[in-house]
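Continued from yesterday's entry.
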Amino acid sequence: MKYFIGILLIGLLFVTACNLTGGSVTSDECSSLEGPAKDDCYLEINKCSMIKSEIVRDSCVVELAMQKEDIAVCDLVISEIAEARCVKEIAVISNDHAFCSEINDNYWKNNCHYELATNNNKEVYCSLINNIEFKDKCFEKIALETENTLLCEFLDEKSSDACIFSIAKSKLDVKICEQITNSLTVNNCRYKLAKLTNDVELCDSLSFSDMRQVCQEYFKENNLGDI
């Protein structure tokens, strides 16, 4: 049985290698070139197995895997990091989050979770990211995209307030400003909404007298609303 499986694997690699080279290359347009120029030429026409540089060859195989949308091609990549990137690209192209779990490299695994999360507004994938900055960016992007202030709560206080502020402006809803924790930012949010909605009455809701005066003067100077 082991011998039979071995024969099958060898056959698979042979077929894949033929696909990588695109057939005979002894007289193709790249054969007369030398060094990096030769590798670049083979890279351009996807004849990966003819490339001498391991880095360039891996890059070629990754591109080929993406074109074929075939994760099995990623097995032909030599570098572990390049293979991780290859699997991540296939996961994104196929929109299959399950592939992310097959990635060993931490950077590309986080990238995989991030892209699948933000592409599909699946905040649950953000929680799988183990880099705090990247995780926050993930939650923030989906919060703004879906205008869901609850997701802003996953951020630190300053970032959370900014996130809520942005959603309040986007939805033109002054009630959302009340979810902000910093009092100055709450007032800034109300003032911004007053200007965006041309609602002079919102000036009265400002708790800082100086800001309230600035708000009222804005409407006077621009002949907006009734003061």
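--- second protein ---
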Amino acid sequence: MKKVIPTVDVSKFIKGDTAQKAAFVEELGAAFSTVGFVGIVNHGVSQTLIDDFYTEAKAFFALPVDTKEQYEIEGLAGQRGYTSFGKEHAKHTDVADLKEFFQIGQESDSTNIFVEEKPKFLALGKELYQTFEQTGGALLRAIALYLELPEDYFDAKIKEGNSILRAIHYPPISSEPASAIRAEQHEDINLITLLVGASAGGLQLLNKQDEWQSIQTEANEIVVNVGDMLQRLTNNSLRSTTHRVVNPPREMWHLPRLSIPFFLHPIADMDLTCLENCVSENQPLAYESITAGEYLNERLREIGLKK
């Protein structure tokens, strides 16, 4: 079966010689310009750490609902701690996704929520967060070079940024859903998203021919996609591709699904004004100027997490 997304080897950029590094930049840039998604291998994220965090996340979501709801904190717009089932929806619909989730921010952030019943959960999440941040930073350095910017262009913009590690639980489907699927079609808000393999399939992207295609990953492969902030910054040169998580066949409704995306966000005051070298007569300016913080707040309201 033909792969829907290309696979690239991050070690070529981090450890390779000048030619290997340049080749990686072109591979990643081409993938993000055309598909908007890529699979990465040799990324440096420990499989043991991923597995340990999965185990703790699974144990958290298995807690009684009233216990989990103690960690749903009013006023945090779902950006830290628990968000209960049926709260979030895609921006174009009011029908809630079939999921619940838990979010972790910067290690230094005092609003991170410690779960007393699962004391390893937050510690492992912070460790995974930092590892994802390092790998994501390397990818953004490659993207900067592809865009003919200084390699460190994004470094200061993502240091202590508003990135989020989210553990998502899609419970077993017990009855015919009215209209919702596990996660309705959407685009991510941030710069890039890193997603470690979900415990069950269902992730699909919408290609340029308006066809839904299922994304299959190899062992130890991380899926990375462009978010709307990066698409906006590059005036649509890099694609924030529409994607969704569909319900499994009826005979697999009893299986839950767990996935761990890392949404790499910049600091709130990053200027998302389109880059001058991405604007031309053939590619006219598509977006007004806005900061990352303003854009994030706008989108959080659209998806029902912020009033």
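The helical segments are 11-14, 18-34, 47-61, 65-68, 120-146, 155-158, 228-233, 292-302. The mean pLDDT is 90. Will compare against the first tomorrow.
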